[in-house]
């Protein structure tokens, strides 16, 4: 039984559903499900050890974010499949002009997320630890020794992460949905208790904000450690590049991943990677 069939067979639909797979998603499968009760969003995925993805953590993140009104309402989790309200809107896209109103909206969303109270046993997210581990798992020769040292030096210089509230840790524009009235945040695979400055740097990098736009973001967000946000910028670049190399090594090269990997490495001044 494939994922489409598995979702169609769930005992939660009021009538035989129409299940349509959506194109987005490198590490999960996303679906639009229609039945007599309306339209829903379903998401399926398995643990991915080479990225540190644990679906139990993702579902916990979604429950918290959904309850807080930051993510679409989570309706049910059945056999590991998340079923949520379907938000009719437009996903933001990297490279598109970023309007001031969008920056204000996402800054306010992040502030609300970071202020959430979490249980003491909530899982944490440590970007340095994950990036260092993934670098150690790359096959010999993936990068030259000089470039490897360059990446490790960035990790060594990263300021200490101080876990506080919930962070998302994957703030690419594509993970924001604009429904015309507000923005929703989706794709919670990497989130956990973390340092808010890490998210702000991650957002700035993901949206390709220039210096003036980043300053506008921090003004809209409110009080934060601006020096730490700046210092986390290179760390986010390393994380994204190492994620790409890890994905290619373990799952193959598909779609635009090769071009995106080269783009990420170029931002770090690395040109020794010539593809798998």
Brief account:
By secondary structure, the protein is α+β, with helices and mostly antiparallel strands. The protein contains 9 helices and 10 strands.
Overview of this protein structure:
By secondary structure, the chain is an alpha+beta fold. It has 2 domains: 3-86, 2-Layer Sandwich (Phosphorylase Kinase, domain 1); 91-267, Aminoglycoside phosphotransferase (APH), C-terminal lobe (Aminoglycoside 3'-phosphotransferase, Chain: A, domain 2, Alpha-Beta Complex), CATH 3.90.1200.10. It contains 9 helices and 10 strands. The chain has helices at 3-8, 55-67, 100-114, 127-137, 145-157, 196-206, 211-221, 226-251, 257-267, and strands at residues 18-21, 29-35, 38-44, 74-78, 81-85, 90-91, 166-167, 176-178, 183-185, 192-193. It has a 5-stranded antiparallel β-sheet. It starts with a helix and ends in a 9-residue tail after the last helix. The relative contact order is 0.14. The model has no long low-confidence stretch (mean pLDDT 94).
